[in-house]
Each structure stands twice: as C-alpha cells, then as structure tokens.
Amino acid sequence: MQKEVMFAGFGGQGILFSAKILAHAAMEEGYEVMWIPSYGPEMRGGTAYCMVIISEKHIGSPIVKNPMHLVAMNRPSLEKFAPVVKPEGIVLINSTLIPVRSGRSDVDELVIPVNDIAIKVGSLKSANIVALSSFVARSKLVKMETLRHCVEEEFSKKTKLIPLNMKAMEEGEKAVVNLKE
Amino acid sequence: MGKTFEKPEALSDAHTHYCPGCTHGIIHRLVAEVIDELGVRKRTVGIAPVGCAVLAYNYFTCDFQEAAHGRAPAMATGIKRVRPDLIVFTYQGDGDLASIGMGEIIHAANRGEKFVTIFVNNAVYGMTGGQMAPTTMPGQRTTTSPAGRNVEEVGMPIKVANLLAALQTPAYITRQSVLKPKHIIQAKKAIKKAFTYQIEKKCFSLVEVISTCPTNWGLTPVESIKWAEETLLPYYELGELKTPE
Amino acid sequence: MRKVLMKGNEAIGEAAIRAGCLNYFAYPITPQSEVAEYLSHRMPEVGGVFLQGESEVAVGYMIFGASGCGERVFTTSSSPGISLMSEAISYIASAQCPAVFVNIIRGGPGLGGILPSQGDYFQATKGGGHGDYRLLVMAPASVQEAVEMVMEAFPLAEKYRNPVMILGDGLIGQMMEPVEFPEHLSSKPTNKDDWATTGMDTRKSDKPNVVKTLFLDAKVLNNLNLTLKAKYDRMKKEEVRYEPYNIDSDYKVLIVSYGTMSRVCKTAVDNLKEEGFEVGMIRPQTLFPFPETAINEAAGKKSCKTVVSIEMSMGQMVEDVERSVLGKRPVEWYGKCGGEVPTPEEVMEVLREFGK
Asked: Which tens digits make up the pLDDT trace of A60-105?
C-alpha cells in the first residue's frame, strides 16, 4: 500500500532534509520512493513543505491530494495540511511552536515539543531529526535502525554533527515511548 | 631568381566577392600571412560573421565555422573551451560586433578567452546595404540616417577598442588601419602579436582595423581613403590600447 | 549498481557525464539551476568543461561552436531560456551538428511561473526557431527515465547529426527518486572528421571543413532541406517510442499523456479499473517523432469511444493526437497549466465524464 508523508514548516527548519532521510531509509529497505519538494518563492524564508511517497510498487502520481501523514513543524503548516490528512493518519504537532491542535478526531495526533527536545539535546538545528525520529517511532514506516544508519550517511560530510543527531534520534524516539506510558 | 610575391597558403584561389576598393581583401591577406608565418593553418578554426565577410570561409584554407549575427565570440568560446589546442579567430564587422554582438564580445574579452578577434570597422553596415552602425560618425549619412547621424538621438559612435581596454582582465587590445602601406605593415605586426599571444595561451586579443566602404559611402576608393583619414582616424585613434604585460 | 536517491536535475547532469559528455555550458534559470550547480563541481572532477555563459543566447552559440568541433556537448535550461537559445538551435539543425538540449519546462507564456508545465510542446516539436527543422524530442516521466534518455540522446544526436531535446518539467527536475545509472556509454562520436572543424592536422587532411548555415543558391538550400527532411522521415521510421498502459483491456476511453502528467493519469487509470471502468493509455516517450500509428490503432479498438489528450498545457499535443486519430473517434482535451498539476481525482472525474 502506498503511504504519503507531508513534512511542513518554516524555510530553514530542515524540512526537505528530514524528508530526504526518510525517503532514503525507505529506499534502503527496498521500497519505491519519491521525494517532491515545494519549490519556488516559498523556498526563500517562507513555508517549506515536502512530500515523501513510499510504496511497495511503482509510484504513479507525484501529486497527492490527501497525504496519509503530516509532520507539522509550525502553526501555518498544521492549519494548511491537517484538514487534508487521511483518516487514521498521524499528525505530528511540534507543540513548542504550535499552541493549537488539529481539530480532527479521526487522526492519530502526536504532540511532541520538538524544539524543546532539540534544545535539550544541544542544538535547535536538530529539531528536524527529533521530529523525524518521533514520527518514525510511531508510524514504523521504516526500522529505527535503518533510519539511524541513513542519518549517519546523510551527515557523512559533516561527521562532527553525527553524535548530536544520534542523540536527537534517541530523544525523539523516547518522547513517543514516554507518551504511551 | 626566387619568387618575390605569392599568395599565402592560408588563402584559397577563389575570387572574392568584395567591392572594388574594399579593404577586406587586404585584411584577409594579413591574417593569412600571419597564419602561414606561425605555421598554424592546420590547427586553425576561423569564425565568419554575418556581414560582408560571411563568405570568408571561401577565401581561407583552414577550418571555418559561420556564426549568427554577433555571436562569433560565443562560438569561439565554445570551440576554444572544448579544444584549447585549436587556434581560433573571429572576423567581425562593426554591425556584427559593436551592435548585435556587443554582449558576446564584452563577456568573451572579460573572461579572457584565448582567441583573436579581428574587428573591421568601416563605420557602416555593408552587407545589408549601408545602414547606420554604432560606429557611424556624427553627421555621416547612411540609408537609415539620411540626414546624417544625429548624436542627440542615437549617441556618439562607440570606440570598441577603448571600451574593451577598460576591462580589468589582461588582454591585447589595439586599433590599426589599412589605409596606407605603413598602416598595413603596423596592422600585420599587431595581428601577428595577437595570434602569438594565443599560441602562448596568454590572453584574449582584439585588433580593430579602420577600414573603408566605398560602395556604401558613395565615394571612389581613393576618396574613401581620404575621407577615412580625415574623418575616422581623428576619432578612432590608432595605437596599442592595452597589452597583457 | 546500487540505487541512489537523486534529484532529477542532478541526475541529468550525472547522466551526461556517464554518456561521455564532458562539455557543459549554461545560464542559471529556475527550476533547473541545480544542473549547473551540480556540474560546476562535477565537471572539474572528471576533467570536463563547465562554463556559465553570459546569457542563454551566448550559451546557444557556445554549444554550436563546441558541437561544430564534433565534441559531445549539452546544456540545460527552462522555457524562457530555451526561447533565447532557439535561434542557435535552428542554426545547429541547419549546420547538422549534434547537441543535446534539456528543457525543464516552467509555466508560461512570458516570465510565467516557475512551477511545472508542459506549455513548450509546440516550441519543442514544431520549431521554436525559424526555418524547416525538427528536434528529436524525448519526454521522461521519471528521474530514472530522464537519466536513460539523456544517455541515449548523445548517440542519437550523433546518428542524425541533429539536436536532441529532453523535454521534462519542473517536477521531473525537482523531485528525487531512486536512480540506477546504466553502464557508462562506451561509444564515441563517429565520422566527425568528415564534417567537423577538428583542425586539419588532427584528421591528417588537406581539405578544410566548414560548418555553416548560409546557402544563397535556392537549389542548394532546397537540397539541404530535402536532406534534413530525409533525416526527420528516418526518425519517424526508427525512433518512435511510447509506453502502452492497460491497453489490453476493453477500454472505453483512451488517454494520450506524457511526462509527469502521464504518471497522474496512470494512478487515475488504476483507480478507475478498481471501479470497473477501463481506460487505456498511450504515453509518448518521443514527442517527435510522435507515435501516430500506435495511437491510431489504439483509438480504433472497438470498445474505445473517445480519445483524450491530457496535458499540462492548454491543448497543444491534442493537435498531434487529432492528426493521429484521423477522425476515427472524437478527440477531447483536458489540461491545466500555471503550475498546478491536476490530481488523480480530477483526472478521474474528467474521464468518467468522457466515458458516459
């Protein structure tokens, strides 16, 4: 079955990058994948969003009206995309920056203080990785191990950032486990 | 007794289509002599412009490409970048180089492309029938400036060599003429210098050559030379404007 | 070889290198500037030529000059940039030089927008520049296919001594998909000594080669055009490519669609099949030559009531579809342009309507 994940936030929050890591990990696990960025004026500082499609078979349309899941890093993203998420989908809400909720009762709302966790981990810049880790921990679209491996590979040119992002991975996952308890 | 005068190897046997009194023939010969003397004919590619010299490939015996109007410096760039071992020259007139092709020549010169441009300036469009060029003199009558060039409307003639000499990239920029034998001797020296700089992979070179167009000026060849000396040379001063050293 | 996740634009740059094309001239324009950015560091790594020209006009002639030397050369641009290069493309076709142009189309006319479009279909297939010439036009629908087409484009350009255009759209350039690169092309340009300005020394010849496009004698020019026409006729015989989809079903509607749009259509076809509504599709992979016969035959199927051209333009390819169907069936058009790609749901609704 085909699964679509919409990553959305401010430009500069690393949206395109975390989406790429997910696509990379899914590819490593043998899935067909597609990574479709929003590009254009909004690239320059405004809202950025990016769709990742993961499927067991050939992917047709790159245009998806209703994504299965949403990772919302800021309020405008949540307000824009929460209404179109498919029922039963995950809506990850970065509660550090978003005081509201999706207003949907038919989705799996995952409220994570992403920025707070990132700051605790050591850098706000790792917020995208925290969110990615939380999302994957809940959705299980790929194995955490594969994801960790891909984070390492994506940072292979900036190896000194790997420990920070491994920590971000760990804390992102922990946040989801803690929610369940 | 040996031969005292013969046709350069780099020139073909073809009769040129140039008008009586036109100086293109002289300039072709100077380029051909330089190519022969430097022994580079078999690795030279010339680029013909759009204008009177469009058929130049019929008169030279080296490889040739023919550009669109004004684009010879871009073509030369393409050739020289992918085949730096070739010796490349463009041969352009004032409409071609100074009007429609101004962007290409400035950027090629500024990148320091290692080719030679022979810029023939006779202050008028020749091939299309005597229209006003960017180098047409104030008050000069042409088919599109019947009352004479009005500088209030279209500005002053462009001194291409001076313009290019203002660029910061090292280059060889010179203005010559072929109006008198002593000019011709000087012009050949300049052309040879330009080709030598290219062979040494040193710099871009432009040799502007003040020339005549009896047909479109409506003068006899002799009158043309006189007019050029009296009108063009005081404005387009001859000499070296920039050397790479 | 291991699959790599790559952006279309970067994959196109890499594919050219693997096709043995080490010469790239370009001018930045959205949405394809990543090709230039990628090649600005890749070309020096492989000892190739990278040059950012001063304009698309100049770049067109840098390509002409380099291809006139018989070297593999290519450029990439997007719609307004291709308009500026079209002068040179006409010259290159006339001088019969091989070269590859990639157009990652954005919305037009004018400055238009920077989002995906297929509005340059006419420009690519019917001219763009002046005079009687054609480009061999290939339209990829995925990053993988873009890579394969770029790699095939060079030998095709050399086979016909004619420019080849890869017609993608903003989405093909911007999206990432897993790519498996084919083996490096081992072929080299052949016969260039017969015509290219390689320098007489290098081909041990006494005869100068002249690359030119001025033919003042009417008979000579007519003969050149006949030569060109013969090449285009040969392309029509030998180079037509298309992908049939769900064509064995008893489809009521036949779609003709290419590039990104065809992928949306595929999803629509699959979804409608689940509803019990059969739709067939022909996806032209070459836009010139156009798969006329395949479309004509598919339109003639007994179950088929309507043929519809679905494109991200206001009805350009539909003219070729009409020309192919030859009145056998009604030919309809559906499309959107401006950057918004129709969704599968929209396409399904349109198809249901045409299927009534």
From this structure: 999 999 999 999 999 999 999 999 999 999 999 999 999 999 999 9
DSSP H or E run through C223: helix C218-238
Q: What is the CATH number of the domain that holds C137?
A: 3.40.50.970
Longest pairwise C-alpha distance within chain C: 71
Number of domains within chain B: 1
Pairing of strands A47-55, A32-37: antiparallel
> For residue B147, what are its two tokens?
């009352």
B162-204: pLDDT as tens digits: 999 999 999 999 999 999 999 999 999 999 999 999 999 999 9
Predicted TM-score (pTM) of this structure: 0.95
**Pair of tokens at residue B139:** 């008050």
Tokens of C311: 């494109």
Site of tokens 């430097």: B38
Closest Cβ–Cβ partner in B47, B61, B76 for C208: B61
Q: What are C324's two structure tokens? A: 């192919």
> How far apart are the CA of B83 and the nearest CA of chain C, in angstroms?
8
Tally of domains in chain C: 2
Residue C68 and residue B54: Cβ atoms within 8 Å?
Answer: no
| Each residue's pLDDT tens digit, B62-89 | 999 999 999 999 999 999 999 999 999 9
Q: Which of B47, B66, B81 sits opposite C214 (nearest CB)?
A: B66
* ipTM of this complex: 0.94
Q: What is the Rg, in whole angstroms, of the alpha carbon atoms belonging to chain B?
A: 17
Say if residue C268 is in the same domain as residue C188: no
- CA atoms of C161 and C19, how far apart (whole Å): 17
The helix/strand/coil state of C108 is coil
Q: What is the CATH number of the domain that holds C314?
A: 3.40.50.920
| Closest alpha carbon within chain C to B77 | C62
**Strand-pair category, B116-121 with B87-93:** parallel
Nearest to A135 by CA among A46, A25, A5: A5
Whole domain around residue A39: which residue ranges? 3-180
Answer whether B41 touches C (CB < 8 Å). Answer: yes
Query: Is B18 a domain residue?
Result: no
Q: Do C233 and C295 share a structural domain?
A: no
Q: Which of A4, A5, A61 to mutate to test the interface with C (most CBs of C within 10 A)?
A: A61
CA gap B194, B117 in Å, rounded: 9
Average pLDDT, integer, range C295-316: 98
Q: What is the amino acid identity at position B198?
A: Q
Residues in chain C closer than 8 A to A62 (CB atoms): 171, 175, 260, 263-264, 341
Would you say C258 and C318 are in contact if contact means Cβ atoms under 8 Å apart?
no
Would you state the structure tokens that stand for residue B228, as one six-digit string? 């050029």
> Which structural domain range is residue C280 located in?
242-355
- The helix/strand/coil state of C282 is strand
Q: Give CA–CA dist A134/A87, Å, rounded.
A: 20
Q: Name the domain count of chain A.
A: 1
Residues β-bridged to residue C51: C25
Contact A34 C170 (CB under 8 A): no
Question: Is A35 part of the contact surface with chain C (CB cutoff 8 Å)?
Answer: yes
- pLDDT reported for residue C186: 87
